[in-house]
Specification:
Protein name: tRNA (34-2'-O)-methyltransferase regulator WDR6
Subcellular location: Cytoplasm
Largest sheet: 5 strands, antiparallel
Radius of gyration: 35 Å
Strand content: over 45%
Pfam families: WD40
Number of strands: 84
Main location: cytoplasm
Family: Belongs to the WD repeat WDR6 family.
């Protein structure tokens, strides 16, 4: 029955790994993935089992062009071969049929028979062994042990069958060893009562918890075990025959053992271990991989996986890499050693060779990797060559004594120095022979800061918030006049009043207007933590700087806290700012308006972020963690550098060159230099999903320019991932596009919809059709709701956009634009790569070009937010006692214009004059229904323009936890619409509410307030505004059921008793002009269908049907595909397709197809329909994309 449902892609926990012939093989669910170790790309994948996940690989006889594998998982095993042609995977073939055993398989082992043929020994979970002839697909024999107990792990040792040893970790926290080969063993078909079990040879004790893994290294003859008690124990084994000859059964019986190590290093349970000749690696529930030596020391800690566990571990044959697979679906390759890999070294700059012994360094900086700039307290300015260990005096001037600020321009080898008298000196520090200087008096007081905006523009800050933007060029060279640099003042900037009024960072950014005109702006950050936007003086204004407005166009006060902005940079058309609040924020300049898209805190404890670097599409964050300077990789979730320097309040400098990094800082009157390797020891083979269970998935609304389904997933790990499924070489691959962070607790529900108003103005950088945007709402723990704007773009059109506008930028070359092009060059390189479509069901391309996702955080709302802000509330609101642990169980959102259709005349008036109140619908552009764990159903509005949420109505009708809610719009042939809201609770009831009544009355109240506001500002529009209110009142009068209803007296139009307990899935579909079908799935494992008759805003029940045994566990997803077809999924890991047959007063439900999936703890499902194809995304502990055609049913 499952043949009609076709799995396309699975993303979930990686449960098995092996490295062979330069390939990394991983088991994810029932699928085998093959990655190329060098290219770091997926080459092939195949589904091996049905109803079982892959738990292990065992490599057989491997040739130059073939890898032979025994794959096992749960109670299934098979043999496959991977064919290689010029080191490329060309085919994966089943070499045997799938064997289904009567017990769980813990291990598989290739053994040689006396006739040199190979067979496979299987270790079973009840301390027994099966010998399987995989070529003839026959089980030869089964051998049992007298200790017939449950095992938590097993390991088989030996090459020949006659020398095979079974090592088992029992439920009694012991390791037992017994021989598999026994002359008295019987054929597997013999009656079990006549089989003689084998005695145990050795028992190892000491663990205080069950044993999860056992490994034996035959060369060093050591046995290692890991346990639930977080410990790792290693025994040294000694045989009479010595260590050079493989031991026989007799040798094993005479073996002696000694416990040599008992180690604790993991913070949680230890799952697995891999032994190598000189070290061993362990993984655990703390998502950490530890590398140990055999003296018990931790050599390295590999942290990068998200979530709770690393589930699988393997090592390369040359012992240069270990590979880990986590519960976050990622596969990571960790480097153990690298030829010539540098070690961390520290040394002090030999300042004692300078003549003045009483002098000391006051400021340090780095001009390049080999050059350190040192300003002494006496006013002497030195260059220090690190390699040659030589000093060169740049200048010595008492005017720079005791106080100076320096800032170096790395590209032009220029250094700007300011002093307490307001003097600026520009130094060309490239040539040691002829140093040319230029002194300019800028201010009446001291120079507070110097910032190079780019290699030709310098920002200087003086007293009282006075800032100057200077242009530095290489003008006419005249040695007689001792001039080398030309300095001109372009612009006077005034910083708003604050305690610390000087600029700490700045960059240029360009904005494209609606008329395709490019304007340039200056984004600055100050020591007070604020961000400002200034207009930038173009070439035509350079000689008339007084015509430029020196006040900021926008101010974001203390957006980075109170301690300052540390960097401002531009990348890919966006501005990034960092600060000493531990956040980095992304901004977008949209038609001359600077808008913050989002802000991220990288790491708890990393409260000082100094700079962002992008290297190989990896975001590196430089900052200070307590008294350590650290470099953190965001994409790899790993610390690359940690240098103890005392903190960031001292003078310091940092430079990265290839795989080396150099850090210089002042401490105790000395300049210290630290060299260390910045090479990442991690390579990501498969991208990261979520680290915890997925709570909800939603397909984004369709867009004409995006042909692939775009998916959003929300998780217990507080993050939201926007992703796409792309087709590459006939493989459906999942790729994340963006990660949305910010929720305080788990994200339980998502709602996606198009823009709320047809007349909404675009705030994007252009109005080109390739930008497809939508609004995403997310809700979860701590009663928190967030609104996001998502923009999905084809990078091919982005390339065309930049090509069109780059030439029309500033007259003077703009580094910001060049860096934007360079940043996107890697994304543009493969834009026109053709996608193969060799299979019939993949004829529709998932992705024509690479996709990019930009996201903007619009607003955050907490239920009962007025109480949090101590605003006045009526005593009637006292019955709403908000628990801070209230969870948002479900959200559904609909644009307002889809719920209430306005007269076309009013729409025209609104478009003709934006001040008219007929455009008020844009203020409340979305209506949300929110189900809360506190028993309340809330109706909220959200305005895209004001970015505010507002509570419209609240009801405690269910008096228990509300689990589900959704909107439904019933349409008639006369184009009348009747909107409803459905809510379901833990009592098993479904309430249907008249949404039009609630929204329209609120809209009238809002419009009346807005009319008063418009009247005050523009009396000419008074009549138009009042007409709009009258129109709304007339519309409401036509649709109201019973007069005016207060929020606390809201009653549903219909209440349905559907289930015995909670309802976890709900869907509704209009099946005729007067009828709608409601489907629900509950904790009672049943599916209930209600056929509703809808007349206006009234509902009545026509027919009901129930399938009491639809699933064997609670149903977590249901969807009505058509009036006669339905899809459901459950925690029982099945996806079922049902045929519906409506009778006069009943509905018959029959299963037509069923498919087992690899997702554990299934929590949600969403459906994407395209023509005759139905695509399902089922999620829980992982995510799976399935497809079926309606023609097949």
């Amino acid at each position: 029955m499952a043949k009609n449902i076709r799995p396309l892609c699975f993303v979930g926990p990686v449960t098995a790994l092996i490295a062979s012939r330069g390939k990394i093989l991983s088991g994810c669910g029932s699928e085998l993935f093959v990655f190329d170790q060098i290219a770091k790309e997926l080459e092939a994948k195949i589904t091996l089992f049905s109803g079982s996940s892959i738990h292990g690989f065992r490599e057989g006889q491997t040739t130059e062009d073939q890898i032979l594998l025994c794959v096992f998982g749960a109670k299934q095993t098979c043999v496959v071969s991977i064919t290689l042609t010029q080191d490329k995977v060309t085919d994966i073939t089943f070499r045997s049929a799938v064997l289904k055993t009567h017990d769980w398989i813990w291990d598989a082992h290739w053994v040689l028979e006396e006739d040199n043929t190979s067979s496979i020994t299987l270790a079973l979970a009840h301390n027994s062994v099966l010998l399987w002839d995989w070529m003839s697909h026959k089980v030869i024999m089964e051998q049992k042990c007298k200790e017939n107990c449950i095992l938590y792990c097993a390991h088989l040792v030996g090459t020949m069958r006659k020398d095979l040893i079974f090592m088992a970790g029992t439920v009694f926290n012991q390791i037992v060893l017994w021989p598999v080969s026994n002359d008295k063993c019987q054929n597997v078909n013999t009656n079990a009562e006549h089989q003689e079990a084998v005695d145990i040879m050795h028992t190892f004790s000491g663990h205080k918890g069950v044993i999860f893994s056992i490994q034996y290294h035959h060369k060093i003859q050591r046995l290692c075990s890991v346990s639930d008690d977080r410990s790792i124990r290693i025994w040294q084994l000694s045989f009479p025959i010595g260590s050079n000859t493989p031991p026989s059964i007799a040798d094993w019986k005479q073996m002696d053992s000694q416990l040599i190590l008992s180690l604790y290093g993991h913070a949680a349970r230890v799952w697995d271990v891999v032994m190598m000749s000189s070290c061993f690696a362990s993984i655990g529930e703390d998502a950490t991989c530890l590398l140990w030596d055999y003296h018990g020391n931790i050599i390295q800690k590999f942290k990068g996986h998200k979530g709770k566990s690393i589930w699988s571990l393997a090592a390369s044959a040359d012992e240069k890499y270990v590979i880990t697979g986590g519960g976050d679906a990622s596969v990571r390759l960790w480097e153990l050693q690298k030829s010539g890999h540098p070690v961390t070294t520290s040394k002090a700059v030999p300042l004692q060779i300078l003549k003045d012994a009483d002098d000391f360094p006051r400021t340090v900086d780095m001009l390049d990797f080999n050059t350190v700039l040192i300003m002494m307290n006496s006013g002497s300015f030195y260059k220090y060559d690190v390699n040659k260990q030589e000093f060169h005096l740049v200048f010595s001037d008492s005017n720079f004594k005791s106080y100076s600020v320096i800032c170096s321009c790395h590209k032009q080898y220029l250094c700007a120095v300011g002093n307490i008298k307001g003097t600026l000196r520009i130094v060309d520090a490239k040539d040691n022979n002829d140093i040319q200087v230029e002194d300019i008096t800028l201010f009446g007081g001291k120079v507070l800061s110097l910032v190079w905006v780019n290699h030709t523009h310098l920002l200087c800050s003086g007293p009282d918030g006075h800032c100057l933007l200077l242009y530095i060029s290489d003008g006419d060279y005249t040695r007689e006049e001792n001039k080398y640099l030309s300095v001109r003042t372009l612009q006077n900037l005034n910083l708003p009043a604050s305690r610390h009024r000087w600029i700490t960072a700045a960059c240029f950014i360009n904005s494209v207007t609606t008329g395709n005109e490019v304007k340039s702006y200056l984004v600055c950050g100050d020591k007070n933590g604020s961000v400002f936007l200034y207009p930038f003086a173009e070439e035509k204004c350079w000689d008339t700087a007084t015509s430029i407005n020196d006040e900021p166009l926008q101010s974001f006060f203390r957006i980075h806290g109170k301690t300052g902005v540390t960097s401002v940079c531009e990348r890919g058309g966006s501005v990034f700012t960092t600060g000493r609040d531990g956040f980095y924020r992304e901004w977008k300049l949209q038609q001359g308006v600077l808008v913050q898209l989002h802000g991220y805190k990288v790491l708890k404890g990393l409260d000082w972020i100094d700079q962002l670097d992008w290297i190989n599409n990896d975001l590196l964050v430089n900052g200070f963690f307590s008294d350590h300077f650290v470099v953190w990789s965001v994409s790899q979730n790993q610390q690359l550098i940690s240098i103890r320097c005392g903190g960031g309040h001292r003078s310091w400098g940092f430079w990265r060159l290839d795989d080396m990094s150099r850090f210089v800082y002042l401490k105790n009157g000395e300049a210290c230099i630290v060299d260390c390797g910045s090479h990442s020891k991690q390579n990501l083979l498969h991208p990261v999903l979520h680290g915890r269970e997925i709570c909800d998935v939603k397909f984004l609304p369709k867009h004409r320019d995006i042909v692939c389904p775009i998916l959003c997933s929300a998780s217990e790990d507080t993050s939201i991932i926007v992703s796409a499924f792309r087709n590459k070489d006939s493989l459906i691959l999942w790729r994340p596009l963006a990660v949305l962070k910010g929720h305080l607790s788990s994200v339980r529900s998502l709602a996606a919809c198009s823009h709320g108003s047809k007349m909404a103005q675009s705030i994007d950088r252009t109005e080109k059709s390739f930008q497809n945007s939508c609004i995403l709402f997310s809700g979860g723990g701590r009663a928190e709701i967030r609104a996001w704007k998502l923009i999905i773009e084809n990078s091919k059109e982005i390339k065309a956009f930049y090509a069109e506008h780059v030439e029309s930028s500033m007259v003077e070359p703009s580094l910001s634009q060049l860096s934007a092009l360079n940043a996107n060059r890697s994304a543009f390189s493969n834009l026109d790569t053709a996608i193969s479509k060799s299979k019939a069901h993949l004829e529709k391309e998932f992705v024509k070009n690479e996709l990019l996702c930009q996201h903007e955080h619009l607003s955050t709302y907490f239920l009962g937010e007025s109480r949090h802000k101590k605003m006045y509330t009526s005593w009637k609101a006292g019955k709403l006692k908000l628990d801070p642990e209230t969870r948002i169980m479900a959200i559904h959102a609909t644009p307002l214009h889809e719920l209430i259709v306005l007269d076309k005349n009013f729409e025209k008036k609104g478009t003709q004059d934006s001040t008219s109140s007929s455009n008020n619908s844009g203020h409340m552009s979305h209506i949300l229904s929110v189900a809360g764990s506190d028993g309340y159903l809330r109706i909220l509005s959200f305005s895209e323009e004001t970015r505010n949420f507002q509570n419209i109505a609240t009801t405690f009708y269910h008096k228990c936890c509300v689990l589900k809610t959704l909107h439904y719009i019933h349409r008639t042939k006369e184009n009348q619409i009747f909107p409803f809201t459905l809510s379901a609770s833990t009592r098993g009831d479904i309430a249907i509410w008249n949404l039009f009544d609630i929204v329209s009355k609120h809209l009238i109240r809002y419009a009346e307030k807005d009319v008063l506001r418009v009247d005050e500002k523009d009396p000419d529009h008074k009549d138009e505004g009042q007409d709009y209110v009258n129109f709304l009142e007339a519309s409401v009068t036509d649709h109201l059921v019973m007069g005016t209803v207060d929020d606390e007296d809201l009653q549903p139009v219909l209440d349905l008793k559907a289930h015995q307990s909670g309802i976890n899935s709900l869907h509704i579909l209009q099946i005729s002009e007067s009828n709608a079908l409601v489907a629900s799935g509950g904790d009672d494992n049943s599916i209930t269908l209600h056929n509703l008759r809808i007349s206006g805003s009234q509902c009545a029940l026509d027919a009901k049907g129930t399938k009491v045994d639809a699933h064997s566990a609670q149903i977590t997803g249901i969807w009505l595909v058509s009036p006669s077809m339905m899809v459901s999924t459950s925690i029982d890991q099945r996806v079922c397709v049902w045929q519906l047959c409506s009778q006069k007063d009943s509905i018959e439900v029959n299963m037509v197809s069923c498919k087992y999936i690899d997702i554990a703890d299934v929590s949600c499902m969403d459906v994407f329909t395209e023509r005759n194809s139905i695509r399902l995304c089922v999620a829980g502990e992982g995510m799976c994309l399935l497809e079926f055609e309606l023609d097949n049913f």
